[in-house]
Specification:
Blueprint: H1 2-6, E1 30-36, E2 39-44, E3 48-53, E4 56-62, E5 73-79, E6 84-89, E7 94-98, H2 101-111, H3 115-121, H4 130-139, H5 143-149, H6 153-163, H7 166-174, H8 184-199
Antiparallel strand pairs: 1-2, 2-3, 3-4, 5-6, 6-7
Helix pairs in contact: 2-3, 4-5, 5-6, 6-7, 7-8
Length: about 200
C-alpha cells in the first residue's frame, strides 16, 4: 500500500487495489451502525435493529417506522457494562435494547472457530440466552454443540432427531409431564421418533 502511494498508483474512485480483503458483505441498506468489537450493530432502512457477526445477521427488534416506511431511529452507542444499545428517534426520544456483550463475544469466537474461547465465555451468558446461542450454533452447522447448549426441550428434541440420537429424543419424551403425554404435540413427537427408529 505504501509503495502504491509512493508510485502514485492510487485510483480516485477505488483507492489502492488490494488494500483490504472483503470478508463479509451485508445486503441490507444500513442507515446507522456501530462496531462493538468484531460485531456490527445496525439499523436498516426498514427499521430493523440487527447485528452481524461473521456475516451472520441476527434481528434484535423491529423499530417504529415513518409513514413512508423508513426508520426514525439512529444509534447513539453501546454501553457494555449495561449490555444495551442506545437509540434516538427524530423527536429526540432515547430508547435502549438489550444486546448481551457475552453473547456477541461467544458468537464471534464461534465464527473464528475458537471453541476453547467460546466455552470459556458460555458460563458468563445467562441461561435465559442459551436457546438464542443454540439457534446461532445450529445456523452455523454446529448442531451437536447446539443440542448441548439449548434449554428448549422442543429444540433439543428436533436436534436429537436430526442428528439421529434416538436415545436422547426418547429420554426427552420420557420427561414430559403426565398431563401432557396424550397431547397432539407429544403424540406427533412419538411418531417422529418411531419413524426414525424404524429407519435404523
Amino acid at each position: 500500500t505504501a509503495s502504491a502511494i509512493a508510485m502514485g498508483q492510487i485510483s480516485p474512485e477505488d483507492g489502492v487495489d488490494g488494500s483490504f480483503d472483503l470478508l463479509y458483505e451485508i445486503s441490507d441498506t444500513v442507515t446507522t451502525g456501530k462496531w462493538v468489537g468484531d460485531c456490527f450493530i445496525y439499523i436498516n432502512k426498514t427499521g430493523r435493529l440487527n447485528y452481524s457477526v461473521g456475516g451472520n445477521i441476527q434481528n434484535l427488534v423491529h423499530l417504529d417506522t415513518s409513514a413512508a416506511g423508513t426508520t426514525k431511529h439512529r444509534i447513539l452507542g453501546y454501553l457494555a457494562k449495561e449490555d444495551r444499545v442506545y437509540l434516538v428517534d427524530k423527536s429526540l426520544n432515547i430508547s435502549s435494547h438489550k444486546v448481551m456483550l457475552a453473547v456477541l463475544q461467544y458468537q464471534t469466537a464461534v465464527m473464528r472457530g475458537d471453541f476453547d474461547a467460546a466455552n470459556e465465555l458460555l458460563p458468563s451468558i445467562p441461561e435465559s440466552e442459551y436457546t438464542t446461542v443454540a439457534r446461532f450454533l445450529e445456523s452455523q452447522g454446529f448442531k451437536e454443540e447446539a443440542m448441548a447448549v439449548t434449554t428448549d426441550s422442543d429444540h433439543k428434541f428436533d436436534l436429537a432427531l436430526e442428528l439421529g440420537h434416538i436415545d436422547v429424543a426418547h429420554n426427552l419424551l420420557d420427561e414430559i409431564p403426565e398431563e401432557e403425554r396424550d397431547s397432539t404435540d407429544t403424540l406427533a413427537k412419538w411418531k417422529k421418533l418411531s419413524d426414525l427408529a424404524l429407519k435404523d
